[in-house]
Design the sequence.
C-alpha cells in the first residue's frame, strides 16, 4: 500500500521543475559528502550554483531535458547527470582525467540542509596526525560556527583544503568540501580529549587520523621552510606580459624596490582567494617602494589559451601590477622557468625580494580566510616582512 | 492525499543498497569508460606509438625514434626533470599529462623521470572496445586487508603502462574453491587520491579475458573491511594497443579458477610475459 502511494505521489510531482535549492550528497565508499545545489530559471534557460556552506560557485552550464538534469563544470571537465523524480535527483558525478573517467554516485533532495552547530567541545584548533602506509604527516583542523552552522578547515603545511561544511552532533561530525573537482570528506568522533576519524578523498581513498587540542606550538612545517632559493645572486625572471612585451627582474620599475613575486595560476582557487589581500598590500606599501609581479603558471603553456585566462583573472580583481606568462603549472614547469628555486610546487608561492633583488623569503602556499587565525597570522607575517625589507638601504 | 504526497516528496532519496549500488555503479562506470575509450583524444584505442623519452627522443622523419607521416623533425629533450620540445621554429618546456598538438597527432608525456614515456595518439578509425562479461553477483567478496609482511615501496607498471612507485598495502584472502592470497599495492591516482590495486591472473586468461592479467581495485567498507568486485576487473592499456608495455604479473597473484567477470578480451596470439621483476 505504501509503495503504491509513494509511486502515486512520485507520479504526481514528476513534472515539477528542477528549480530551487537542493541538499545533495556524493556517496563515497566511506559515507555521504554533503553539499548544496541551487538551480534557477533565468533568461529562458537554466543556471545553477554549487555551494559548500555559504560559499557558492556557478556551474558553467545547466541542461534540463524532460526528467534529465545535467550540471556541468567545464573548468574540471566534470558533470553531474541526474534523473528528476518528484523531489529527488539521483545520478552520477563524473569527471575525466588523463587515465579515464572518475564516477561517483550523486543524489539530492529539495530544500536546504538543516543547520547544525559544532558543539563547544569541538570548536577550536586541533593538531592532527595522518596515518599513511609508511609514516605520518601533520595537519591542522579548525572548527567553528558560521551563519550556515558548523564550518571547518583542514590545513596542510602548504595550504588549506577549502571551506568544509556539514553536520555535527555532541561528539561526532561529518564535513565535506566538493568544488566539482576536489572531493573531500572529513569524519570524526571525539572520545575523551582525542578526536579520531577518517579523511576521505575521491570515491574510495581513506586515511585515518587522530588529533589533540593545539597547544599553540608549531605543528606544521613552516611555509618558509618548504621552498628554498639561491640567495647568492639576484632572483632572475624574464617572461612576456599580456601584451607580449618581455618583462624581467632588471626592468627599471623593479630596480631598488622591494619586490613580491606571486607565483600563481588562474586554475588555482587558493590563488583567487589570496589575490584581494595581495592587492591590499600593494596599495598600502607601493608608495613606499613595494612592487609586485605575478608569474602565471597555466595549464597548457600555450599563449593563445593561457593569455585570455590570465587577462580575465587580471580584470576580475583589477590587478594593478604586471602579470607575466611564465610557464606550465607543474614542478617541471616551475623549475624550468625559475631555476633558482628548489622545492617549488605550492600554489600560490610568494617570493620576497630585497632592494638588491635577492631572495629574502619564500612563502609556500596560502592559508585563506577559511583558515581563520592561521590566515590572520600569515597576513601579519607578510606585513612584518615587507616593513623590514622596505627599511633596508637601497643598493647604490 | 495532498499531505501524504508532501511527506513522501520531502524524503531524501536513499543511498542505493550495497548490491544495487554495486550493479548500478558498475554499469555506470562501464558506460563512462566505454564512452571515454571511444571518444577521448588520449584513449588508448587511439594510441599509435609510444617510446621512452630517455635523454632525448626524435620524432617525425622516417629514421626517427617515432616516425610520423607529414611531420618534420621534432625532439623531446629531458633536462633533469624538465622536458623540452624542440620544433623547427624553436623550443619550449612541455608538461606531463597535458595534450601537445602536433599536426593531426596529439602527444602525451606520462610518468616521472627517469621513466617518462611519450605516447602519440592519432585520428585513425578506432577498433571497438572489448566489452564486458555479464554482471556476476557471486564474484563480489569482502574481507579484511591483512598487513603487508614487508612494508615498503616498489616500482611497478600501472594499468596505463606507466612506471610508478607503489606502496605495499597488504593482502586479501579469498576462498574460490581453494584459498587465494592476493597482494595489494597502493598506487597514487592524483592529488590526495590513490587506489588499492590488485593485478591478478586467472584461468580464464587467454580464453575470453586478457592473457597478461587484469587489474581490480579494492573498495573500502564501513566496517573496515574491503569489497573485491571482480565485475570491476579491467584490462591494462596494452590490451587496447600494442604500443603500451604490459605489466609483468605480480608475484603470487594467480587464481586457480576462471574469473569470467569484468572486462573481456577477444584478441588472440598474445602471450603473457613471464613472472619476474615488476619493472622490465
Sequence:
Amino acid at each position: 500500500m505504501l509503495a503504491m502511494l509513494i509511486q502515486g505521489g512520485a507520479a504526481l510531482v514528476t513534472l515539477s521543475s528542477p528549480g530551487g535549492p537542493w541538499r545533495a550528497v556524493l556517496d563515497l565508499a566511506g559515507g555521504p559528502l554533503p553539499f548544496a545545489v541551487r538551480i534557477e530559471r533565468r533568461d529562458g534557460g537554466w543556471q545553477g550554483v554549487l555551494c559548500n556552506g555559504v560559499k557558492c560557485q556557478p556551474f558553467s552550464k545547466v541542461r534540463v531535458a524532460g526528467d534529465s538534469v545535467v550540471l556541468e563544470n567545464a573548468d574540471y571537465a566534470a558533470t553531474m547527470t541526474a534523473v528528476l523524480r518528484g523531489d529527488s535527483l539521483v545520478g552520477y558525478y563524473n569527471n575525466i582525467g588523463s587515465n579515464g573517467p572518475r564516477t561517483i554516485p550523486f543524489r539530492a533532495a529539495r530544500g536546504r540542509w538543516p543547520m547544525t552547530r559544532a558543539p563547544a567541545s569541538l570548536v577550536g584548533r586541533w593538531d592532527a596526525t595522518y596515518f599513511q602506509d609508511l609514516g605520518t604527516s601533520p595537519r591542522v583542523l579548525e572548527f567553528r560556527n558560521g551563519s550556515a552552522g558548523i564550518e571547518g578547515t583542514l590545513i596542510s603545511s602548504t595550504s588549506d583544503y577549502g571551506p568544509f561544511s556539514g553536520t555535527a552532533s555532541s561528539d561526532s561530525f561529518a564535513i565535506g568540501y566538493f568544488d566539482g573537482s576536489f572531493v573531500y570528506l572529513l569524519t570524526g568522533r571525539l572520545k575523551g580529549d582525542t578526536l579520531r576519524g577518517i579523511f576521505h578523498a575521491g570515491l574510495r581513498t581513506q586515511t585515518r587520523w587522530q588529533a589533540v587540542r593545539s597547544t599553540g606550538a608549531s605543528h606544521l612545517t613552516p611555509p618558509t621552510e618548504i621552498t628554498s632559493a639561491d640567495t647568492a645572486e639576484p632572483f632572475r625572471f624574464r617572461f612576456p606580459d599580456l601584451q607580449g612585451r618581455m618583462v624581467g627582474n632588471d626592468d627599471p620599475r623593479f630596480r631598488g624596490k622591494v619586490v613580491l613575486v606571486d607565483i600563481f595560476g588562474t586554475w588555482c582557487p587558493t590563488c583567487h582567494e589570496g589575490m584581494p589581500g595581495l592587492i591590499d598590500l600593494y596599495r598600502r606599501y607601493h608608495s613606499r617602494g613595494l612592487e609586485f609581479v605575478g608569474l602565471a603558471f597555466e595549464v597548457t603553456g600555450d599563449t593563445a589559451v593561457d593569455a585570455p585566462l590570465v587577462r580575465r583573472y587580471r580584470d576580475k580583481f583589477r590587478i594593478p601590477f604586471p602579470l607575466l606568462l611564465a610557464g606550465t603549472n607543474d614542478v617541471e614547469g616551475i623549475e624550468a622557468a625559475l631555476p633558482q628555486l628548489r622545492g617549488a610546487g605550492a600554489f600560490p608561492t610568494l617570493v620576497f625580494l630585497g632592494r638588491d633583488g635577492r631572495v629574502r623569503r619564500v612563502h609556500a602556499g596560502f592559508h585563506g580566510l577559511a583558515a581563520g587565525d592561521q590566515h590572520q597570522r600569515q597576513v601579519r607575517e607578510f606585513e612584518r616582512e615587507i616593513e623590514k625589507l622596505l627599511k633596508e638601504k637601497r643598493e647604490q | 492525499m495532498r499531505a501524504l504526497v508532501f511527506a513522501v516528496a520531502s524524503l531524501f532519496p536513499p543511498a542505493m543498497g550495497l548490491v544495487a549500488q554495486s550493479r548500478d555503479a558498475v554499469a555506470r562506470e562501464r558506460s563512462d569508460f566505454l564512452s571515454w575509450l571511444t571518444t577521448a583524444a588520449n584513449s588508448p584505442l587511439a594510441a599509435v606509438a609510444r617510446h621512452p623519452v630517455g635523454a632525448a627522443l626524435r620524432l617525425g622523419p622516417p629514421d626517427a625514434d617515432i616516425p610520423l607521416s607529414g611531420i618534420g623533425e621534432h625532439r623531446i629533450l629531458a633536462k633533469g626533470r624538465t622536458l623540452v620540445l624542440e620544433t623547427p621554429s624553436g623550443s619550449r618546456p612541455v608538461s606531463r599529462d597535458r595534450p601537445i598538438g602536433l599536426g593531426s597527432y596529439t602527444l602525451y608525456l606520462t610518468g616521472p623521470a627517469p621513466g617518462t614515456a611519450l605516447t602519440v595518439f592519432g585520428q585513425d578509425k578506432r577498433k571497438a572496445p572489448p566489452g564486458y562479461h555479464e554482471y556476476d553477483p557471486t564474484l563480489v567478496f569482502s574481507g579484511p586487508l591483512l598487513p603487508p609482511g614487508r612494508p615498503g615501496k616498489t616500482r611497478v607498471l600501472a594499468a596505463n603502462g606507466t612506471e610508478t612507485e607503489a606502496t605495499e598495502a597488504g593482502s586479501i584472502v579469498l576462498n574460490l574453491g581453494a584459498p587465494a592470497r592476493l597482494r595489494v599495492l597502493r598506487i597514487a591516482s592524483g592529488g590526495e587520491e590513490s587506489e588499492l590495486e590488485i593485478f591478478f591472473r586467472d584461468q580464464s586468461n587467454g580464453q575470453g579475458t586478457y592473457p597478461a592479467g587484469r587489474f581490480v581495485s579494492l573498495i573500502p567498507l564501513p566496517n573496515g573491511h574491503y569489497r573485491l568486485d571482480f565485475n570491476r576487473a579491467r584490462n591494462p592499456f596494452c590490451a587496447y594497443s600494442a604500443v603500451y608495455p604490459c605489466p609483468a604479473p605480480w608475484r603470487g597473484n594467480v587464481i586457480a579458477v576462471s574469473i569470467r567477470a569484468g572486462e573481456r578480451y577477444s584478441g588472440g596470439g598474445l602471450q603473457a610475459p613471464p613472472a619476474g621483476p615488476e619493472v622490465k
The CA atoms of residues 163 and 295 of chain A lie 26 Å apart. Chain A touches chain B through 58 residues (CB under 8 Å). Confidence is low (pLDDT under 50) at residues 1-14 of chain A. The longest strand of chain A covers residues 31-42.
